[in-house]
């Protein structure tokens, strides 16, 4: 909990971790203490995955030059020119 | 009447020849094989065209040379268009070519082949250069025309597969002069944007001429230099563009590119829920396993004060429940996993209780297996004997079988539980 912001795992990493944990839990040959510890880790990884999916947000921007000629992000407004 | 022959100065006659030549050959097309091609620092290209019987000196000035789509190479059969001129200080006549086209192959086709061969030799298409596309990109950069159909197709592709994407478009022309430079600049600019994990560069289908920017070196170089993996998405099913070869991923259409760079949201969720379910089930099984071990242990006559142990274990259980608030929020059932903690503890405790009574456990050094038979060790083996307090490390001197018969003079020293 101390370094929560340290570096966020990607969805892929968290899910791979989760899948590995579930596999090892299902194999049934972990000592109970170890299994419980793993289970806790699994819950954490599961939460990470859900968080990533829930945090996804649709956003469409475009790069445009500002007054000073620097590139800046502005919201993309579709123009209907063709069709 | 005899007239005195007119005597020209060299300059005079040269001027007349020049006038004749330039007048007569002001617009000619000459075919032949290129030879002696030399590009000067000034940008002008000097070369000759030859056939079996003759050779013609040629020059292409920088302004025309810069419009060449392909590279002049010795051996190439070409048609050169231009005018004949004469350079008096050297007495040389030459063809000033303003346009050259290859014979046979179209010039775009030739340019494509030449650039392809050159970049390939440079190793830009090597499979080991290709970077894997991210599984789930945080942001996606797109280089294409803001108003083109390709961009709409890409957005539609995301809509179908993973609607909540974060996209940033670097608007760029995708055909005509200067488009290649804009595309290259767009790729470069997106590389400077935070959190971009993949870039799609593309356009819809069109003629070879329309697609041309994606066959230009500027775009190929920008893709190769990109820190972020690039997917080339030029709408054409059959032919490849140079960008397709250099890019880390190639999509046959802009829609396909969208599908290539994000996973299918529904499948992702399905997998996650399935794994969630398996995790819950695993916990249930753990609980079941623990419960059985507790039950077995509770039934063991070796235990003298079972109730106390169980109380202690129940406390452990309470601790454990406190450690799992997140599990609770996920509404996983059977939060009595504390019992498993108890069981684990009991497991460890049970032999100790027996040791208290004066028994000991012997293991081969480094092994976790309790020794049950003298046959499990050999003289010279190191063994470890665990007592209620402390342990003893010793070496096997001799073995004695159960029936008391000695193997030679072997003597069983290893205590057993």
Please name the defining characteristics of this protein.
heterodimer, A: 83 residues, alpha+beta, Helix Hairpins, 2 strands, rod-shaped, disordered N terminus, B: alpha/beta, OB fold (Dihydrolipoamide Acetyltransferase, E2P), Rossmann fold, five-stranded mixed β-barrel, 13 helices, 13 strands, 21% strand, disordered C terminus
The count of helical stretches of chain A stands at: 2
Low-confidence stretches of chain A: 1-5
Query: Widest sheet of chain A: strand order?
Result: 1-2
What amount of the residues of chain B lies in strands? 15-25%
Number of strands of chain B: 13
CATH fold-level topology of chain A: Helix Hairpins
Strand content of chain A: 5-15%
Q: Kindly provide the name of the CATH class of the largest domain in chain B.
A: Alpha Beta
In the predicted model, the low-confidence regions of chain B spanning at least 5 consecutive residues are 324-351, 404-417
The chain-level mean pLDDT of chain A equals 79
Strand order of the largest sheet of chain B: 1-2-3-5-4
**Radius of gyration of chain B over alpha carbons?**
43 Å
User: How many separate domains of chain A?
Assistant: 1
Q: How is this structure best described in words?
A:
The complex is a heterodimer of chains A (83) and B (417). Chain A is an alpha+beta fold and 83 residues long. Chain A has a single domain (11-75), classed as Helix Hairpins (Orthogonal Bundle), CATH 1.10.287. Helix content of chain A is 49%, strand content 14%. Chain A has helices at residues 11-27, 32-55; strands spanning 59-65, 71-75. Chain A has a two-stranded antiparallel sheet with strand order 1-2. In chain A, a hairpin with a 5-residue loop joins β1 (59-65) and β2 (71-75). In chain A, α1 (11-27) runs antiparallel to α2 (32-55). Chain A is rod-shaped, with a radius of gyration of 22 Å. The relative contact order of chain A is 0.12. By secondary structure, chain B is α/β, with parallel strands linked by helices. Chain B folds into three domains: 10-104, OB fold (Dihydrolipoamide Acetyltransferase, E2P) (Beta Barrel), CATH 2.40.50; 113-125 and 138-262, 3-Layer(aba) Sandwich (Rossmann fold); 350-417, no CATH class. Chain B has 13 helices and 13 strands. In chain B, a hairpin with a 5-residue loop joins β1 and β2 (45-50). The radius of gyration of chain B is 43 Å and the shape is elongated. The N and C termini of chain B lie far apart (148 Å). Residues 324-351 and 404-417 of chain B have low confidence and may be disordered. The chains are: A alpha+beta (83), B alpha/beta (417). The interface between A and B is large, with 43 and 53 residues. β1 of chain A pairs parallel with β7 (166-171) of chain B, so a sheet runs across the interface.
């Amino acid at each position: 909990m101390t370094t929560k912001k340290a570096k966020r795992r990607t969805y892929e990493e968290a899910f791979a971790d989760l899948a590995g944990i579930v596999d090892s839990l299902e194999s049934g040959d972990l000592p109970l203490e170890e299994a419980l510890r793993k289970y806790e880790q699994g819950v954490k990884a599961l939460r990470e995955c859900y968080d990533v999916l829930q945090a996804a947000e649709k956003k469409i921007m475009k790069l445009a030059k500002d007054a000073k000629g620097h590139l800046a992000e502005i919201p993309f407004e579709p123009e209907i020119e063709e069709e | 009447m005899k007239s005195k022959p007119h005597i020209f100065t060299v300059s005079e006659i040269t001027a007349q020849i020049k006038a004749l030549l330039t007048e007569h050959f002001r617009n000619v097309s000459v075919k032949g094989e290129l030879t002696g091609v030399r590009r000067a620092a000034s940008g002008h290209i000097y070369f000759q065209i030859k056939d079996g019987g003759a050779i013609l000196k040629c020059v292409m000035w920088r302004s025309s040379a810069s419009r060449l789509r392909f590279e002049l190479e010795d051996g190439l059969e070409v048609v050169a268009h231009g005018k004949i001129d004469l350079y008096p200080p050297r007495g040389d006549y030459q063809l000033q070519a303003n346009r050259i086209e290859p014979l046979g192959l179209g010039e775009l086709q030739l340019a494509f082949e030449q650039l392809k061969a050159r970049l390939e030799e440079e190793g830009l298409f090597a499979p080991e250069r290709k970077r894997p596309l991210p599984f789930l990109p945080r942001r996606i950069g797109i280089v294409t025309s803001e108003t083109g159909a390709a961009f709409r197709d890409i957005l539609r592709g995301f809509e179908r597969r993973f609607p909540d994407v974060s996209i940033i478009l670097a608007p760029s022309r995708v055909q005509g002069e200067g488009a290649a430079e804009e595309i290259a600049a767009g790729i470069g600019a997106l590389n400077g944007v935070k959190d971009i994990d993949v870039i799609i560069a593309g356009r819809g289908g069109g003629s070879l001429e329309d697609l041309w920017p994606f066959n230009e070196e500027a775009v190929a170089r920008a893709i190769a230099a990109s820190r972020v993996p690039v997917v080339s998405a030029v709408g054409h099913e059959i032919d490849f563009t140079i960008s397709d070869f250099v890019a880390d991923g190639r999509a046959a259409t802009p829609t396909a590119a969208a599908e290539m760079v994000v996973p299918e949201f529904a499948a992702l969720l399905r997998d996650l829920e399935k794994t969630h379910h398996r995790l819950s089930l695993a916990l249930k099984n753990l609980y079941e396993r623990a419960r059985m071990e507790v039950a077995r242990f509770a039934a063991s006559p070796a235990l003298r004060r079972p109730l106390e142990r169980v109380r202690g274990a129940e406390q452990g259980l309470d601790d454990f429940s406190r450690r799992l608030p997140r599990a609770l929020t996920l509404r996983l059932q059977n939060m009595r996993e504390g019992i498993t903690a108890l069981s684990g503890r009991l497991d460890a405790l049970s032999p100790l209780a027996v040791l208290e009574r004066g028994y000991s456990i012997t293991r081969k050094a480094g092994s976790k297996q309790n020794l049950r038979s003298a046959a499990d060790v050999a003289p010279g083996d190191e063994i470890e004997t665990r007592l209620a307090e402390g342990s003893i490390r010793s070496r096997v001197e001799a073995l004695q079988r159960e029936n008391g018969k000695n193997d030679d003079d072997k003597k069983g020293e290893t205590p057993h539980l």
